[in-house]
Amino acid sequence: MTFDEALTKLKETSPLRITVCGDIGAGKSTFAKRLAAALDIPRFSGGGFMREEAAKRGMTLADFSRSQEEDDTVDRAMDALVKERSEETGRGVFEGRVTWHFVVEPKIKVFLSVDPKIAAERILGDADNPNRDKLGTLEEIMADNALRKDSETTRYKNYYGISAYDHDNFDIVVDTSEINADEVFEQAVIKIAKLGGS
Questions:
Q1: Which of 55, 99, 103, 139 is buried most, with the most CB atoms less than 10 Å from its CB?
Q2: In whole angstroms, how far apart are CA 159 and each of 68, 79, 81?
Q3: What is the pTM (predicted TM-score) of this model?
Q4: What would be the CATH architecture of the domain defined by 3-196?
């Protein structure tokens, strides 16, 4: 199947709820935005919601994640919102760490993985992005990412008994470490269409 054939097939598929999850710095937002635009369907971003909440409190995402270990209010509100939006939407891209668990009847669950050092290099190279926490060195970013991942792993296991990072929860896993955003997009779209296109 060619990329164009895959895109055409997905444009004709309904319902089509796709979840996009993955490692920090794997390119989830880039991929989800591009997929939603290509299919002309809405995108819902759990990560965007969390960034807004952290910014309101003047906190980094890592600090905000740790605060959620003691107060699960924001996490649970976001998870409920994802479920509600998916009930209202027959076709959409749902991006976030555990959207695969909350989206009602997802057609395809995608996980983007990345090597932690490559993720940190990408984040460092994306320093002008206003959605990124401002950390100075590669080592600081790697440490911050590790803290966030540990916090998320703990929280979701405690809340729901799930692992946000277990590849067995997903239909498609794409390692983005050694390929660019265009290659990720093309490979994933073809895989999605092969598995979930009707």
A1: 99
A2: 11, 11, 16
A3: 0.87
A4: 3-Layer(aba) Sandwich (3.40)
